[in-house]
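This section describes the prediction task in plain terms. A model, or a person checking by hand, is given the sequence of a single protein chain and must write out its three-dimensional structure as a string of tokens. No templates, partner chains or ligands are provided. The sample shown here is typical of the held-out split.
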Amino acid sequence: MTITPLRDLVTQCRADRQSFRADGTRVTYACVEIFRRACLVDEEASAAIWEIFAPQVERWANPRTDLPPEDVADLVQETFLHFFVELRQEKYHYLVETDDLGLLMAFLKRRVKWECLTSARKRSHLPFALDPDLPLVDARAEMQIRAVENQDECRRLLAHIKSITSDLEWLVFSTRILLNMPPRDILAAYPERFTDMQQLRAIIQRLTRRIDSDEVIQSIGERVTPQRKKTAARAFLEIRDDQSGGQSDMDEPCILDESLLLDYISGVATVAEQALVERTPACLAAAQRLGQRLLPLIGVLHRFECPDVETLIGYQELRLDSTAQLVVRQHVAACPNCRAELLALADIDAVPDLPAKSVFRRIVEALFQPPLAMPQPVRGDVRHYRTPQVSIQVSVRKMQGKARSWTLRGQLRLTDDHPIQDLLEAVLLTLADQPDDLPLTGALEPNGGFVVRNLPAGTYCVRLLTREEEIVIRRIVVGDSAEE
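The expected answer:
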């Protein structure tokens, strides 16, 4: 059995990807065969997949990540690393049992969604009273692990809080504490439930004091939160003190209530509110004390009732069973954070598989250059065409053993005769007298080359698509009497 060289598979896979743009066909032996070899821990095949599909992963990742380019590159790397780990598990081998690339692309996109949501949740601005010497992501991960390990305790805690609060207070607790919504957003979301901001802040202050003083809450909180020797609020306070030049007029009392201090330590205060807290050392000290007592517990409970990343993606893709779909739908209706994440997932789905054709692509006609018009006349059946930027060499040859089948081969070069790499995106052929028929698609080769095999005799129009231009050769005769 002859084994196709990996390089040939890569060339054909790239061509098949361009064919998908023309006719939507996802069946491609070459692409899926590379994935099959990656399943067998063929590192060269894995590297080829990375090279071919990394641009698509970047396009999926870009809509909602709001990350700098170097962080997007890290996200792409994490996507492929996790993708290959899963692909090599036996339960996922069904993805390569057929030549349908669509299954693999859907699975790869799901990994992108997982990485994007996980990254976004880790970058949440809630400070969680972290040890300043511990990396932020690792500390948040510890909070999440602690919450998972103590799910029963957390549920007991939430049930207790619900039992000692009114319906309106529970609404405020769910939105302000569990979801970390700013008070202004709560008021905007539920205008019919509150008279004004003053009423809302009074409820937040009452809840804050209750959490701080309730013995049951504090008892459970001690069991589910990690012990920190130094809080983020403390570190933040020290930074602000340094910036103030060492002034510490503690004689001026803090007149701000716990509602505003909670906004400050949980990262949702406005710039004006931050300045109000930082203007008085006594208020910074009060914020520090509040953070020490409350933020570890709030960190564990933050989005505790939200579905995990895998479940939310399953809900978005309608892969959950009917009961689970209904449960998540009811949660999403009341959770702005999950709704925002669903919008992010929808944005990823809206990114096309392969970049769309540019609506601004210029149409440039390539003109035939007779041999005598060339700087160095060329003999044989190679035909030359030219645009202001590139020259194109095309040849037509009869296929061996096939009486009525021909191969058209060509290459793009700069006007100084140097080959061009990675310029072509697709090569399309239509019969000159049937321009509206579905086009035939050529395969792309290295160094700006392309080939179209198994062509019947006829007169063709050839379109060479680049990102900026559509280069048109309006008439090429293929057949025994091929001539210009």
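For orientation: DSSP finds 18 helices and eleven strands in the chain.
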